Amino acid sequence: MSGNVGLQEDGVVVTPCDQLNGDTVSSLQPEVVQKLILQSHQAKTFAHCPYSKFRVGAALLARDGKVYLGCNVENACYTLGTCAERTAIQTAVSEGTKEFKAIAVATDVEDEFISPCGACRQVIREFASDLEIILTKPDGSYIVKTLQQLLPFSFGPENLKTV
Ligand code: THU
């Protein structure tokens, strides 16, 4: 999937990019993808990252259409920092939502698509084994991956059997 889907808002042009994976296309309506990407970049502006200076934003789309935002929240005690994706998940769950369709992730990196860290992939897995993960750049270009692609042969709640 490639080309310019045309929406411009807040200076961001949203464009699907087929550079890395031409066969994963979002199941969402293009306007839903566009909005989610813009929201992830807005969430990025809230990042608290005085130590890494690496801003990350996430916009998590729930099954009911509601969107939960998250940003990375670092701490002077470095190990206590939290990623944007997990912030969004914790916010949604703590507000009573556990079913999700997609998450858009935004950073300031211009020359590559940044993907969720392993810990975030596993936290996403707890609630959605088939989530669409939309990786974005500041210019609004994006690629779509599934959680299954990023975390194959995963361990989830249904595997927790006691003997
Ligand atoms: N970070 C995220 O928020 N999400 C990721 O998936 C990767 C990394 C944050 C954590 C830390 O605040 C900063 O980026 C640098 O690692």
UniProtKB/TrEMBL annotation:
Pfam families the record matches: dCMP_cyt_deam_1
Cofactor names: Zn(2+)
GO terms of molecular function: cytidine deaminase activity; identical protein binding; zinc ion binding
Enzyme category, top tier: hydrolase
UniProt key word Zinc: yes
Domain CMP/dCMP-type deaminase: 31-158
Reactions it catalyzes: cytidine + H2O + H(+) = uridine + NH4(+); 2'-deoxycytidine + H2O + H(+) = 2'-deoxyuridine + NH4(+)
Catalytic residues (positions): E85
Taxonomic superkingdom: Eukaryota
GO cellular component: cytosol
Binding site for substrate: N72, V73, E74, N75, A76, C77, Y78
GO-annotated biological processes: nucleobase-containing small molecule metabolic process; pyrimidine-containing compound metabolic process
PANTHER family registered for this protein in UniProt: CYTIDINE DEAMINASE
Family in the record: Belongs to the cytidine and deoxycytidylate deaminase family.
NCBIfam families according to UniProt: cyt_deam_tetra, PRK05578.1
Name the UniProt record assigns to this protein: Cytidine deaminase
